[in-house]
Design goal:
The protein has about 450 residues and is of the alpha+beta class. It has a domain at about 70-220. It has 13 helices and 15 strands. It has helices at about 5-15, 35-40, 45-55, 90-95, 170-190, 235-245, 250-275, 310-315, 320-330, 340-345, 360-380, 395-405, 405-439; strands spanning about 70-75, 80-85, 100, 105, 125-130, 140, 145-150, 195-200, 200-210, 215-220, 230, 275, 285-290, 295-300, 305-310. A hairpin with a 2-residue loop joins strand 3 and strand 4 (about 105). Helix 7 (about 250-275) runs parallel beside helix 11 (about 360-380). It is globular, with a radius of gyration of 22 Å. The protein starts with a helix and ends with a helix. The model is unreliable at about 1-30 (pLDDT under 50).
Amino acid sequence: MNLKSLLLTALLLSSAASFAQPTCVDLFISPAEQSMAVRAVVMPDGYKQWLLWEQTANFEIFRKQSAPIQVPLVAMPASKVIIQTTPDAPAELIAQFTAGPGLVYWAKHPYNTHKDVPFKDLPADVLLPAYLTASRSLALDGKLRGFTIKMATDYPHGPNGQYQPGKIKTNEDIDSALIHTNHMKKVDKVMGEDPVVLTMGEVMTMAEKATGIGMVVRDVRLLADGHYYLPALSIPYVGREIARINGEKFDAFFSKYYAELLGEAKARLLLRYGLQMETPNSQNMLIQFDRNMRPTGKIVFRDISDSFLVEPVAKGLGYTSQIERDLAVDYKPAREIKPYWSNSSWRFDEAGDKAVDKFTLGKWGAAHNLAYIEYIEKELGVQFDIPARDVGGDTFKMIYNYLGTDIGQQKLLEYRNRMIKAERDRRRSVGASAGARAS
């Protein structure tokens, strides 16, 4: 490792030293059991490492400070806002935004200057420590470590960052966040956990009644489970070193463990939940690694509120009531299938001397789209007529049209029933094994 890399590692380690609370790294292996090559790249605490990648291994103009900032909380009558929580929202989270009988704390993004954001000029009653991430979301600290909060702001990347007035609109996020989170939890209850896709859903929203603008709180406690989670946006900046640790070439390694894995994961999201992310940006895709930075074959979707039901798929899976819930908040189902590789590789080719060249991105994109198509074919038991496995837009139109046909609808229902049966059989087997051990 060269001197520059050693100095950078030392800086990253020291800058995150104040981020409190240990994670459960001992569930896997101790730092002493990590190879020297791994310890030169990552710190023991996977949660801190995720946050550091977010802040520093990023497109230059989006990089953030590692020191915490303070989120102003304003006490106000609960009658001015609408609060929603999931049934499993932690009591300590709800308590943090409760200011007293009939009162709530309204959170303000510390960098917002836009006059249309409600309660912009009210003074803070309480300050809540948080850390900047790659987006406008802030990672909470202390007893609420493991939750992020998305708020309205016109300067999501700090006072010296880009002016983005569109980021004050959190209405759609708020409207769909818990609806889709609850839908996915309901599906998981009958299908069990997906072996590839992990999701981080929202647990709480708060919106001003007059404008619908407010905040969304996401549960990211998964990131403290002892694994490492690499935001895909960091691939150009640290991916080559990770590939070297695994003894593979950069382009082949991330073709397999990002592009192809993500293509399959998006197809799983579609067939399992009937959902498709509208803008699956690389900052919202995280690759899971073990303690020695070996890929586990799992990928995390963040910001599931940025998704739509795909109409014929949702109907075929029997999710008509979910379509109605989406329509009730003017969240119209999508009428196309589009895996959006361009979003998932956004600015990979703009990382200076670490940029991924367009030829490699083209190969990754083809591998991503083909993995998406082949998973649908495998699970539905069909073979689409794709000349030379062409994976362009016309192919996705053809697949969309097929899934809306009578046979396509039947295939989707068969898939859902098969998944439900497999989970029932698994639970019976686990129960029988537990009973045998007890006797």
